[in-house]
Queue: 4 jobs
Job 1
Amino acid sequence: MEMRHIRYFLMLAEEKSFTRAAARIGIGQPPLSMQIRDLENEIGYPLFNRTAQGVQLTEAGRAFLQEIKPVTTLASDAIASARRAAMGETGILRLGFTGTAGLNPVIPACIRDFGQAFPAVHMNVTEANSLALIDSLLQNQLDIAFIREESSLPAGIDSHRVLQEPLVAALPLAHPLAKARGKVELAALQHDNFILTPQETGTSLRGAAILACRKVGFEPPEGQPAPHIVSILSVVAAGLGVSLVPESMRQLALSGVVFKHLKSPPPMIGLAAAWNASAFSAPASNFLALVKML
């Protein structure tokens, strides 16, 4: 039994005429009659009484009609569900972001807009360092990760720059420049210890800070390493050093930390969306399309 047998049976039961049923289906009357005969042979009993005026359901036909109607509804629902999944309107979207990326207001805005556009897609969100996120992309455990731009990415990982934002100096409250008016020179921090992420947890923010210092003529002395943005600012608040962080981190407003803009041209750091090109789901494609509209 195939779906066309069921469709033809339902149409004939409704029209009570081979001629009218065949016309609505769009086939000739002999092929319709043959398909109905095949269905009756498979069931083992006639489903219709043929008369000069048309056809009427037999007892077997009425029983078959009652049981088969829910099947057609389920089949239609299954087809619609498959189409929605193929278009990325349902399913799961697995997102990851670093601590600094997740605090940029663009990221929650993207998540909010996607949720409004695709309410049937369930989003799983993970926070980790950039190296862990990239590894999760490679292992197909994430669909899209927001990371600070890396100088290079593993083969198979593609990325799209979402934005660039300036780095600002994070100073302890007791630092001589904390109460300075206006912007400060980065070179004025050359004798301070810099609180940076350890290389094994990610190179983007660390690399951007070191490069910025080198561009103004000094190698930053490294103080106590800290793996996450909150721990970096906590160490700065404790007076153990200074750091360079993305401007969007100012919203943390951590007690004991003063954020100062750097004089032009300020060093910049990028924010990128990365994904595994060989394992890209339909919801991920829709999400990325939204991100690229920014």
Job 2
Amino acid sequence: MRNKKTPTPSTTRSESPSVAPTTRATQVGSGIVTPKLAHLVADRLREQVAAGDLRNGDTLPPEAELLRQFNVSRPIMREALRVLEAENLIQLGRGARAGATVLTPTINTASRYGGLYLATQGTTLGEINQVRMLLEPPLAALLAQRTNKGFLADLESCVTTQREALARQDHAAAIAAVNEFHQQMVKHSENSALNLLAGMLSDISAGAYPRLLLSRPNQRAVWARTEESCAAHAQLLKLISAGKAAQAETFWRKYMQETAEYLIDNSLANLPVGLPRSNT
């Protein structure tokens, strides 16, 4: 476990030197609404996570030390920590003496929140695929242009798993490996913004497509498309390995367009995305 990290509270407030209430005050009518002190404490800690001062696995000081550093009451500190726990930025230890463990944000976390939002908006699989079609073909080209091809081992592993799953007619496992191929592409993009956007959409799709196997009217179509997807992944892997960026992008755009047509032809394009998976 990492050494305990000491937060760096502000010292601009006379009655509570550790927390300044001026940064997020908003005016409503003729009055000023001051943020709750617990939220300001949470802001300070959240900012340190964003800045890298607090890293994944670091342990915050025990409660008594945090109270001394921030000069706030125990209820306020506990509320601040609960806010961060709800955001999956910390994991609280057991007992007052146990420090909280820092958890840096992940794509899975973003997918949970993003997926919940999309589900409440009635977003469909067709809409998800439409956005992925804008993001993934250029990503295929970027991977093909990469001089360091160390990432290919992960893509090759996905293709191998797909073939093995199809050989034993395990379509659920093949779908999982298909989704993993997309996620590995995103993982190796080396672009954090693209990683977040494409990764979130890929993770939402990973939760949606296995549900199609439970729908008997669509099972055969899903099986057939899964086999086509596995073949397409193998072909894309060849193009990326050969450094053929333009061909990889064109091929993947065509594949994504065919996926859009498949969703429409099988009355799946208007299927709403489900709620985020609880195990991600």
Job 3
Amino acid sequence: MRIGILGAGSIGLLFASYLGKQFDVTLFPRRHEQMDLINEKGVTIETLDSTFTTRVRATLDKNEFNKQELIIIAVKQYHLENIQADITNIHNEIPLLFLQNGKSHLKLINHLEHESIIVGSIEHGALKINETTVVHNGIGLTKLAPYRGEINRISPLLNWHCEYFQFKTYLDYKEILLKKLLVNAIINPLTAILKVKNGELIKNTFFMQIFHDLYNEIIQLFPELDSKIVLNEIIRICRNTENNESSMLKDITLQRKTEIDAIVGYILELAKEKNVQLPLTNMVYGMIKGMEKRGIE
């Protein structure tokens, strides 16, 4: 199976390295420098137990999009607008897999005419060390669900088994995206504000209290979910990725734009529609926006 991956950040590199062990993978980075380094060195994954390198091809040639049998869009939420025209020009019969945080990307997806569109939720912890190297410091699932069309269009991927890189399919994309939204809304901003790794949120009793307070405030917006089950799932992900730095913490540290609008901003918009007050969530949002503004000015 020929798989193209748009985006060569931590998630794009992580997927390329694992999938490249079994499939014909082409990475589409944004810059010539990274393309040349990937073609020269391959993509290296470092885990607690081992290090391995996978040879994949990298190119900036957008004509290569339509030679793929699956396109994985692994850029951040706020970069989607920049590549919207590229995605639209991909042949409609080629399945698309979106791996963004939040739910804002559904607006873009809804306007696409592709026959098969899949959305995913990633639980892995990954830290990009350099242009070709990622530390895989949290093992989890990649949850997939069809947004449109049949998910069996990507059956070679679904039938492939890798102990450290497993996929699980679901029927309801709304549920997996909503649960991931809650995971991101708790872990990402709190780790960025407190400047701690994921595991510290559940190890430090004071941080854990803030964790619970924020969760209890947000979960009231979603009465359709089982509060205890979702809470335990967030705690499990914190534990499984305890040594990982959240993407928002990395963005703040590197003075980059964050995905706070796509995650917490989305929740605040929903709260406004439902006329529900979320004072703690508003404060967390304002703190991240202030830190973001200070970093990128």
Job 4
Amino acid sequence: MQFHQIKYFIAVAETLHFGNAAKKLNMSQPPLSQQIQKLEESLEVKLFNRTKRNVELTEAGSVFLQEAYKIMEQIESSTDKIKQHSNGEIGELILGYSSYSIFDVLPMILDTFYKLYPTVEVKLKHLSTAKQIEAFENSEIQVGLLCPPIDQTNLNLELIYSQPFIVALPSNHPLSRDNKNESLHISELSNCPFILTPRSIGTGYYDSIINLCFDAHFSPKVVQEVNDLHELISLVSTGLGVSIVPESLIQYKKSNVVFKRLNNDQFKVDTALVYKNTETSPVVYNFIDIARRILRDTV
């Protein structure tokens, strides 16, 4: 039994006329009759009662017609799913993201992605840059949003977003109470205790902050290191120290914390989109395309 034989059978069963069915199928009648005969032989059952004047379904033919409809529906459904899969409209996306991307980059991309591909299941993993590299090596994520640079040659990296650093201060800090100046120079922090994320979880992010301080001729006095920016801001609120963080953290409203801009905003933190150079998933490339379109003017 072949697919085209089922299609021919349905046409004859619905018209109960071989000539009309042949016209509907855009074929001549003899080949149609031959295919129906082969179908009956393969099923070892008679599907039609034929006379010179009439064509009627047998009882077996009536039963087979209902099954034929189900087969055709299943084939159409499977065909649609295959097309959706090849277009990246269904499937799964496993995405790693760094702490600071949750405040701007990630929501901007996902908002559009969810609207365009509502049937794709997105799994999010909050991971540092170092942990994302490990996750790629273990095939635990397909796309990453992280702070460059990275050294892995098997990963593609595209800069998609750049934002200036700002300073997070305890509200009782003297620099916080200076309402005359909405911004400050990095050198004004030279004697302040710092709270930073460790270099081990993201060399690019850590080195950017250290270099910023070095350019102002001082080395930051680090009194505490924490792995997460939310925790970092919470510690700033206790008065333990100050920190330099991405501008997007201004959205994170925390009592007893004041954010101030640096008067030189040339020091920026980048967000990169990373994926394996062997990646073939249409879902992944749909996500990449959306990220590129949304953020193309922000770098």
